[in-house]
Amino acid sequence: MKLKIAVLSGDGIGPEIMEQGVKIMNAIAEKFDHQVEYNEAICGAHAIDEVGDPFPEATFKACKDADAVLFAAVGDPKFDNDPTAKVRPEQGLLAMRKKLGLFANIRPVQTFKCLVHKSPLKDELVDGADFICIRELTGGMYFGEKYQDNDKAYDTDLYTRPEIVRILKVGFEYARKRNHHLTVVDKANVLASSRLWRQIAKEMEPQYSDVNVDYMFVDNASMRMISEPKFFDVMVTENTFGDILTDEGSCISGSMGLLPSASTGESTPVFEPVHGSWPQAKGQNIANPIAQILSVAMMLEYFDLKEEGALIRKAVNASLDENVRTPEIQIEGGAKYGTREVGSWIENYIKNN
Fold this sequence. Notes:
There is one protein chain. The chain has 13 helices and twelve strands. It has 353 residues and is of the alpha/beta class. The chain has two domains: 1-102 and 267-353, Isopropylmalate Dehydrogenase (3-Layer(aba) Sandwich); 104-265, Isopropylmalate Dehydrogenase, CATH 3.40.718. It has a ten-stranded mixed β-sheet with strand order 2-1-3-12-11-4-5-10-8-9, with helices on both faces. Strands 6-7 form a two-stranded antiparallel sheet. Strand 11 (260-264) and strand 12 (270-273) form a beta hairpin. Helix 2 crosses helix 5 (89-100), helix 7 (161-177) packs across helix 8 and helix 11 runs antiparallel to helix 12 (306-321). It is globular. It starts with a strand and ends with a helix.
């Protein structure tokens, strides 16, 4: 297969983990005789510094022209600590989602047997937890009308029926592929937008009679994810709730550095780690590259290259079992491995298996 991939390394640890992701992609391409063309483009704080725009037109064109986007992370403290900044790195991420029509964010939450003890939750709660959070990405408060002055501010949580229908459809269809259980998360006891979500979900239920649907307020869902994570199979929710719940879910595995995600919709799909740019670790060779590497696996599986994706997952599991791990998940007294060393170990595993 020929694949054209836009590579957006972004900020902080982004370039370091991206290097490992591309390394793994090249190993897979060589082993399975695929042809991969990369087009690197700037985004985030890096792009603001260079051209004043966190998602410049040239980067958008690179994404549009690609079969897929491999993305790392954006964010920089100099913008976080300046509330008056008019342009921010994260605006580039929102612009990418909006311009590419990426309305569905797919975040798997899974545990690794050898890392269950690293989870902040009790072993018996998380061992075997395996669910998917589906977050609506291009509507709600993040994109609604906004206003701020010295005394008043508001954000508008706007959703339309077509926006809700298309993301619920993704949720129902993922549930069909898995264990036929869908949880719709909202705040219908307070918010009008949530009541519309629930109304439409109930209207769609008869079309998916093989799916068991339950409804949960977001506060209850956040507690249930901690007290009973194995309850969930597929969860679908709106943008703001999804942002918070998916970060909460990512901690269940024991490290945000382990989990990938996909954003899909009307145009080129984007594959990225769930974590941020961790600028404090930049250049220290300590960032976990596994989420970036598993994002490559998700990308390959999106193109129905299941054997290739499975080999990456097997290599990642082998590295964890052999304690080839970055510091935040390494066992006490274990050997020291950095970002590059973990990537190289996984690369060699792929080449030799």
